[in-house]
Structure formats: C-alpha cells, structure tokens
Amino acid sequence: MKSIYSVIKKPLFTEKGANLKETQNKVLVEVYKDANKIEIKKAIEELFKVKVEKVSTINTRGKIKTLGKSKGRRPGRKKAIITLKKGEKLDFIEGS
Is 54 among the domain residues? Predict the structure, then answer.
C-alpha cells in the first residue's frame, strides 16, 4: 500500500462542497491521479479517524487556454467525494 500522504493532495473548499457537507455529510478532496477508491478510503480513515461509507471519483481534464497565438492546457486533476457514515463528522478548518 502507498503512504497515505501520497494519496491525498488537499481538501477542496467550494460552494458545491460546502453544500454537500451540510446536506449529505460528504467531503471533497483532491487526490493524485493514480490513487484508486480503496486507497483513498483507507487513507481518509487512517488520517482523520472517521468511518467512510463510499468514495466516488471524478477525473477532470484541464482547460485549454490561449495567450496571443500560443495555446496551452492547464493540468487535469482528480477529485474524490467521500461519503461519511452517519454520526461521523470531518471538518478540515476546525480539525477533527
């Protein structure tokens, strides 16, 4: 198994993420491209001491940007939506 620090990059703080957290007890994090759902689940449970019910992943492609005549692409990223079990709470700002 990989190190838990080579699976999770950072938490994502967005309006959609805040809404999911309040209504459905879900948390958004950015993960490395080669991480799978099992590794993400184990890393979250070990790092934050919470029980994970489900992990969903989303691969996003980077946007194409132009500057003058040159074109480039922003890097893509992989996000994970982690569903926590009932009664579990995870808050990145206040700490667990």
Answer: yes
